[in-house]
Amino acid sequence: MHPLVAIDVARLMVAPLSNTPRGLDRVEFLYAEHFVKYWKGDVVGLIHLPWGQRQLSRDQCRRILRHVADIWREQETADPEAIAELLEGHFGGALQPVWEAHTFARGIREVIRGFAMGHFGLARPSAPQLPKNSVYLSVGHVAPAHDRMISWLGGRKDIKVAFMLHDLIPLEYSELVTPGEIHRHRRMMMNIARYADGIIVTTELVGNSATKYLAQLGRHEVPLLSLPLPITEEFLGAKLEHPRLRRLNYFIACGAFDLRKNYLFLLNVWTEIVRKHGSNAPKLLIVGRVSKYAKELSYIKRSQSLRGFVAGISGLSTPAVRCLMQSARGLLMPSLAEGFGLPIIEGLAMGLPVVASDLASHRQAGELFAKYVSPIDGYGWIREIEAVAFNSHSIIDVDQRAFQPMKQERYMRSVEEFLDSL
User: How many domains does the chain have?
Assistant: First the structure.
């Protein structure tokens, strides 16, 4: 008999604050969608409101998922002609959203609408309603970072608790994040040490770091599942290049404009590429969420040499990102630190040459199929980008068609087996 799974959906409840998902958002959506659709036992969702923890029915969770998918436009079909027209007009300009700007005020309205759709404010208190031997599952890094959202577990020793830990970047690379992120991550690890019966991690690197940090907090030998993140079905279809996009001759980099993504370094690399090759230089397209305070934004606006060669786009749905990847020359990921590297497996699955920074997490994601260069080796990056841009052969020495990313079905089956083992 399968236990009841109570999945924390705190991140999904505030997902409409942005019209595009980050990696953490996508993973929480994947977990929630899978358990709501396929788990053979009972499923409930948990959220924390100012007046206490609340429990959502399976049907209410379905409504949340539909609402979030609509906000993110995940079911839409991308229009290559419209995207190509937009890129042609904005290369060398400011970072531009493809669709209407998603303001914070609009995001707040969508969050409120999501609550109103399911009467979530009137949902039942959660902790007393969960039967013995239920499994509590939190994958979005939200609840364990806030004592008030997680403290109820202290009174439910009969519940098995599983957390997903995506990375320990704020604790290992504090220079790349804000003080608030460091505090939240430290608090999250303390709560994981206090309550976890099992932990799911994305790479062996994260697993080793977690084991060491938890040992410092007095927790030893916590059951741990190391499992690379799966690729979504969206990136497994046949590759269909669009001629108008292909003519733009661009490389693509995907990820929010955070310091650890190392985009300022990449812009310096592109400045040198343009200096060397002039009008024959390839273009660079950066796709990801950006704040108006991003230094990269100022760099692109003020650089005369990059005008016409670099563009950034925010507000894209997954189908639109796939459309752009299909016609790109290659995918670049120069990060200084990562827990995994989803764009790497997405690019490889679509047959793109991939150049990534030489991180253990990247090597586990891309295996032998990507090219790895130090994230501070400017000339090394120039060399590999030129090899893709100006040579007919690939930079990869192995048959990329042999790349086999983790599929969602296999991934979630392993997760289910792990939860059963608890």
Answer: 2
Q: Please report whether residue 355 resides in a domain.
A: yes
Burial class (CB in 10 A: 0-12, 13-18, 19+), 308: middle
Residues spanned by the domain of 198:
5-73+104-230+408-421
83 domain residue, yes or no = no
d(CA 187, CA 320): 36
Confidence of residue 29 (pLDDT cuts 50, 70, 90): very high
State the pLDDT at residue 101: 42
Q: How far is CA 198 from the centre of its chain?
A: 22
Q: What is the pLDDT of residues 279-291, one digit of tens each?
A: 999 999 999 887 6
Helix H or strand E segment including 59 = helix 58-72
Q: Which two tokens stand for residue 233?
A: 């079905």
**What residues have CB less than 8 Å from 373, skipping those under 6 apart?**
355, 356, 357, 358, 380, 381, 384
100 — pLDDT class (breaks 50, 70, 90)? very low
CATH number (domain holding residue 152)? 3.40.50
Residues 23 and 138 both lie in one domain = yes
223 shares a domain with 309: no
Judged by DSSP in three states, 88 sits in: helix
Domain shared by 21 and 112, yes or no: yes
Measured over the CA atoms of residue 202, residue 205, residue 210 and residue 215, the dihedral's sign is positive
Burial bucket for residue 278 (CB in 10 Å: 0-12, 13-18, 19+): exposed
**pLDDT tens-digit series, residues 126-177:** 555 789 999 999 999 999 999 988 988 998 999 999 999 999 999 999 999 9
* Whether residues 304 and 194 fall in one domain: no
How crowded is residue 127: how many other Cβ atoms within 10 Å of its Cβ?
Answer: 17
Q: Are residues 220 and 237 in the same domain?
A: no
Question: Based on the domain organization, do 412 and 362 belong to the same domain?
Answer: no
